[in-house]
User: What shape does this take?
Amino acid sequence: MRETLVLNASFEPLSTVSLRRAIVLVMQDKAVVEQAHPGLRIRAAALDLPVPLVIRLSRYVRVPFRRQAPWSRRGVLVRDQHRCAYCGRRATTVDHVVPRAHGGGDTWLNTVASCAEDNHRKADRTPEQAGMELLRRPFVPTPADTMLAALGVSVREELPDWLVQSA
Ligand SMILES: [Zn+2]
Assistant: This one.
């Protein structure tokens, strides 16, 4: 997959993202195309876009791009898009998959967004002990994930396959 370089509004290089994510950012007016592929265009339905090689964010964002984002409760909720990892409803709390009482830590891989009800029901038990299933595995956000979250773009947001296949 072709990668697109992302510049901050100040022209400082930040990260690379997939072509799909670059197109999402441009289509949502979160970024402008600074440099495009000289020959290729993306044509689909009413859409006709240059293939972005470099895009620049429309507004300046402050996020720790060059290192792993530090763990925080808010960061977990943003990573999981405020969706409960057990039922998919709106989450307002952070659950420790391995409970702190059993040595589970405040880490990206041990915490998930949870609704208050499921968090209370699970209590100091592992998902297995509580008979609860994780709908998705927790993951460590990449610098690109952190940047997209700061821009208010869903981390998992992607364009449909047919759009990029026509590039
Ligand atoms: Zn829930």
User: Anything to note?
Assistant: The chain has a mean pLDDT of 84.
